[in-house]
Design goal:
16 strands, mainly beta, 1 helix, 337 residues
């Protein structure tokens, strides 16, 4: 009997110690607090990233007055709907691109990748052109006029501030044959280094030399960026100068994604000190014990003492466009065959 009592008493002490340990390591809301201060640590998993805004510049224009810087070299363009490709004396930084050659059309445009001889103008963007300057895109001719018609070039200034001049001495396409005389004169000026573009208008005496059947502007690639001054509008006059300049890029902006951290902290339990990190946990305790019978000594039955703690409840914290078909048909023009 004495041995049975001692065995029961010892089992009881063990149960009390076990329950005391669980009580000390469990918060009132059921969350288990770490109990080993020796392995405290914080594991940080940074996920910061920066996204820069890439600037693709576009042009804006101002209107003023100016005079043509005459071209002195004939590039050999004397024709109807033809294109002449030439090398440039310096890279032209149009839209921030360094361009080294150009295809110059009799129909009043300079193309830097395409070489279209299209005469029937449309409003921008124009899919048939790949990066172009269009001072007077219309149905023109650069032949005739007693040899006076054509496209002429010159370069002014000194490096790194040179200006490339391209002058058209043309006519609005007549009803038949070559130009009887020059009635549409204009020029494109391309600036080294800055990408500035100027369009200057000289002699404009034909009924539609005022731009009422022309497109005027600049375009990047097939139209991802473009700036149009006019389209089929009587907006051009002798002495007019249009200056196109690249808008400055804004400073790149960055979007920062704050890092995410997974922290594991260890601290001794305290009735007044809670961990600063938010814990989401579910604590469920199940204590299963199999009592070991004590062999009887003398008379009586073995005494079973259950030290199973009641289950702790779970807690969880948790541009208006004008169609080509609607363009005015001028009586003195003949249709292209």
């Amino acid at each position: 009997m004495k041995r049975s009592f001692l065995m029961t008493f010892a089992i009881g002490l063990l149960c009390v110690a076990f329950l005391r340990l669980l009580a000390d390591s469990t918060h009132a809301d059921g969350a288990v607090l770490p109990v080993s201060p020796s392995n405290a640590g914080i594991t940080s998993m940074p996920a910061a990233s920066a996204t820069a805004t890439v600037c693709v510049p576009n042009y804006s224009f101002t209107v003023g007055q100016g005079a043509i810087a005459p071209g002195t070299v004939d590039i050999g363009n004397h024709c109807d709907d033809c294109v002449t490709t030439i090398s440039l004396p310096f890279p032209v930084p149009l839209y921030g691109l360094n361009l080294n050659s150009a295809s110059i059309s009799s129909n009043g445009n300079v193309q830097f990748t395409s070489n279209s001889g299209a005469f029937n103008n449309t409003c921008l963007p124009a899919a048939g052109f790949i990066t172009a300057v269009l001072p007077f895109w219309d149905d023109l001719r650069t032949d005739g006029a007693g040899g006076a018609a054509g496209i002429f070039t010159s370069t002014t200034g000194t490096a790194p501030n040179r200006i490339l001049n391209r002058e058209w001495r043309a006519c609005i396409r007549p009803s038949s044959g070559a130009c009887a005389g020059v009635d549409t004169q204009f020029e494109v000026r391309l600036y080294e280094g800055t990408g500035q573009v100027e369009m200057i208008y000289g002699l404009l005496t034909a009924p539609t030399s005022d731009g009422s059947s022309a497109t005027v502007g600049v375009q990047r690639d097939t139209g991802s960026r473009f700036t149009e001054f006019s389209c089929n509008m009587a907006a051009l006059s002798t002495g007019l100068k249009l200056t196109f300049t690249l808008d400055p890029c804004e400073t790149a902006t960055a979007t920062l994604v704050p890092p995410t951290s997974t922290s594991t902290s260890t601290q001794a339990p305290s009735s007044t000190n809670m961990p600063s990190n938010t814990a989401t946990s579910t604590a469920t305790y199940t204590v299963t014990r199999t009592p070991t019978p004590v062999p009887p000594t003398g008379t009586g039955s073995p005494t079973r003492t259950s030290c199973a703690r009641p289950r702790v409840a779970s807690a969880t914290s948790s541009s208006a466009r004008t169609p080509a078909s609607s363009r005015a048909v001028w009586p003195n023009r003949s249709p292209h065959v």
